[in-house]
Amino acid sequence: MNRKKHSRTLEMIAGFLAVVFLCSFFPFKLLFADESKNTEDVRQESTDQPGNPVEGLLDPSPSGLIEPNANGYLVYDALSDTMLIGKDYESQMEPASITQIMTVLLALENLQLSDKITFKPSMYETIPRDFVRIGFEEGEIVTVEECLYSCILKSANDACMALAIEMAGSEKSFVDLMNKRAMELGCTHTHFSNPYGKSDYDHYSTCHDLALILKEALNHPTYISIATSLSYTMEPTNKYNDKRILNNGNRYISSPQLAYEYYIGGKTGYTEGLGYTIIAGAEKEGKRLVGVMMRASDAEKRYSEMMELLEYCFSKYTTTKIEDSEFADPEKTTISQIQSALEGTDLRIDSINITSLKYYSVPLSLTDSGYSTVVDLSKVTISPQLSEQTVVVPVDRVFSNETRYRIGYISIQIVNSTVKEDTKKDTKDASTFSIVNMIIVSFVGLLLLFLTVFAISLFIKMTRKRKLRKNHRNPTVL
């Protein structure tokens, strides 16, 4: 009986040691937690970021300009991201076949021109009968490039659907891609429900959002090359034996009376009962503008009125590139004044970062009298108690009539030299302490491992002995 008790006691000890080993690292991790995280790291940040020089329109009341006969319009500077002139440019309206610019943009971003597309019924069977199409057949093989020319020159809805389904597998999946990309471009009042512009209550956009989409498309030279082509010839396919001649339907290219030499790409559209739409990009003397008109009343007049809007903005406003060298004097002034303010303290400048606009637009009349580039230090506050802080100093251009445009910021990180050195020392000490912790934990872990192996071996030995005793039988005496 005593032997049984002794055996069970040894088994309990062995089990206890095994449990202790498995749990050993958890308490040690808590005991030797890294205390270096308690170091103070407080920053004084500014949420200001350079953006458009003005909010809304640069010129809300343009003089000498006849207002176009449309429900909404906008002329947008694509370099400076500035809305120059417009009306109801955030009102949601049906974009009609201007929609196809988004489909074309996604194709340029996700497909190769030489990729081949095999037509399936899903690429044309849901398109209304009276909508423009090339007439591609089931099983006909065409290239992405041929579909792009069909969309841009002829507004062919079957070619547009083919690109969409080729990219996403279905119209619904492609619509999700359209809306996702629109959000990425900053289109906050747009929702697409189809790839080509079919009228639908859930299919809408604004002049501003459409300008953002065309701006991105114009960053692709292929788009500009196709949009400004007079015509394109499609070679025979496996299902069509003749060549197809695609003439550009945009009158800025095809019509001598309405030809516009600065046109670099765009689209027109029509929705029954809601009128005509037009969007056009133009480039002149290093400036790039995008014009949008929605719900215009006349098909031909929209071309002449859009041209007038673009030419007005080319002549009345200027877009200037901001060179890095222009920040040299403001930076010197800022550093000099901040260093003077830090004299007699433990604070010092640790780093300097400049953020600026690439371009900005202003009325041309302002530039006649010149401007100065100044920094505004009036709202800068420096706290001697903080170990680290960042002050953000605005940089403005100020014209002779006191008109002021914000063109960038100078961000200066300031540190407390004493706290910085103490922090480095604490970090070093914490690092040394961590190494000691690791050595102790490793030693204890190895010790527990040894004891556990011993306990398990003892447990197995005791188990075997017990089995032998259980199976042992004394001989029967007859």
Strands ordered across the widest β-sheet: 2-1-9-8-7
Radius of gyration: 37 Å
Major sheet characteristics: 5 strands, antiparallel
End-to-end Cα distance = 28 Å
The CATH class assignment of the largest domain is Alpha Beta
Shape: flat
Query: What is the CATH topology assignment of the largest domain?
Result: Beta-lactamase
Task: Quickly give the structural class.
Answer: alpha+beta
Number of discrete helical segments: 12
CATH architecture of the largest domain: 3-Layer(aba) Sandwich
Proportion of beta-strand residues: 15-25%
Helical content class = 25-40%
Low-confidence stretches: 18-48, 471-478
Description of the structure:
The protein is of the alpha+beta class and 478 residues long. The chain has 2 domains: 1-55 and 322-452, no CATH class; 70-318, DD-peptidase/beta-lactamase superfamily (Beta-lactamase), CATH 3.40.710.10. Helix content is 39%, strand content 22%. The strands form 5 sheets. A 5-stranded antiparallel beta sheet has the order 2-1-9-8-7, with helices on both faces. A hairpin with a 3-residue loop joins strand 7 and strand 8 (275-284). Helix 1 (2-23) runs antiparallel to helix 12, helix 3 runs antiparallel to helix 4 (144-154) and helix 5 packs across helix 6 (171-184). The longest helix has 55 residues, at 417-471. It starts with a helix and ends in a 7-residue tail after the last helix.
Strand-helix topology:
Elements: H1 2-23, H2 25-31, E1 70-77, E2 82-87, H3 100-110, E3 116-118, E4 141-143, H4 144-154, H5 157-168, H6 171-184, H7 207-217, H8 221-227, E5 231-234, E6 244-247, H9 251-254, E7 263-271, E8 275-284, E9 287-296, H10 301-316, E10 317-321, H11 328-342, E11 347-356, E12 359-363, E13 371-375, E14 388-399, E15 404-416, H12 417-471
Antiparallel strand pairs: 1-2, 1-9, 3-4, 5-6, 7-8, 8-9, 10-12, 11-15, 13-14, 14-15
